[in-house]
Design a protein that fits this description.
about 120 residues; 3 strands; rod-shaped
Length: about 120
């Protein structure tokens, strides 16, 4: 193997190795983003379950967010990098059902919306 062939081999190998590590860092970045989005979705689901539990206990007319009255519940505390959840509970225009919206923002984001009726 001559010196020219060896130099070409090292150059091609270095280019291939650089592109491999560049792609690896991109994959790891996307993996972290996906993990944050999954965590945000889980936080929103837990909050929705808590609101629905208060509905089952207190009835349809008393649907509320328990985190407003007792913010020390674990589900009310947001992990580092997440903003406090934005929750809205509003009746629909005809007054038959209510819409619950939960939005989580920060490192990851998620938005859930559920419509509930009195007989559910």
């Amino acid at each position: 193997m001559s010196l020219i062939e060896l130099s070409i081999f090292i150059l091609i190998f270095a280019i291939g190795l650089t592109s491999f590590f560049f792609n690896l860092s991109s994959i790891l970045k996307n993996l972290t983003t996906s993990k944050s989005a999954l965590l945000a979705n889980e936080l929103a689901l837990q909050r929705m379950e808590m609101i629905l539990a208060t509905r089952r206990i207190n009835g349809f007319d008393q649907i509320s967010d328990p985190c407003l009255t007792n913010p020390s519940f674990n589900v009310c505390l947001m992990p580092f990098g997440f903003h406090p959840a934005q929750v809205s509970i509003s009746p629909d225009p005809n007054g038959i059902s209510k819409t619950i919206q939960i939005q989580i923002t920060g490192r990851g984001s998620s938005k859930l919306e559920m419509q509930v009726w009195p007989d559910q």
